[in-house]
Amino acid sequence: MARSWGVKVIAGCAVMVALSRLGVPVALAEDAGESRDAPGAYAVASTVLTVVHAPLKTALCGTSVVLGGLAYLLAFGRPPVAKDASDTVKGVCTGPYIITPTRLRTETMESHGAE
C-alpha cells in the first residue's frame, strides 16, 4: 500500500514539473541563436532529468545525513570527524535539485566548447 502511495506521489510530481515547463519553450524561442526545436528539446530533457535527479539527490542527501550523524555519534563528537561529516552532508545536500532548461543548455554548450 505504501509503495502505491509513493508511486502516486512521484507521478504527481512528474506531472506538475511537466506542466510547469509548458511556458518555457515560448520564452526560449526568442533566442535568435538557436533553432526552433532546440528550446522544446531542452524543456523536455530538463523535465525528464529533474524527475530522475530530484528523488535520487533527495535520497542521497538523506542517506548522507544519517551516515554523517552515525559517524558523529560513533566518534563521540570529535572535531575532525564532525567537520568531515558536516562537509560531506553540506556537499551532498546543497546545489540545485531542479534542472532548468537554461542550466542544461549552459552546461551542454560549455562541454562542447561553445560560448
Q: Proportion of β residues?
A: under 5%
Per DSSP E runs of 2 or more residues, the count of β-strands stands at 0
* Total of DSSP H or I helical runs spanning 4+ residues: 5
- How many structural domains? 1
Roughly what is the average pLDDT, rounded to an integer?
76
Please tell me what the overall shape is: flat
Query: Rg, please?
Result: 19 Å
- Characterize the largest beta sheet: strand count, sense, and whether it forms a barrel: none
N-to-C span: 50 Å
Helix-strand makeup class: mainly alpha
Indicate the percent of residues in helices.
over 70%
Sketch the topology as an H/E string, one letter per element: HHHHH
Low-confidence stretches: 23-35
Descriptive report:
By secondary structure, this protein is mostly helical. The protein has one domain (2-111). It is 77% helix and 0% strand. The chain contains 5 helices and no strands. Helix 3 packs across helix 5 (101-111). The longest helix has 38 residues, at 37-74.
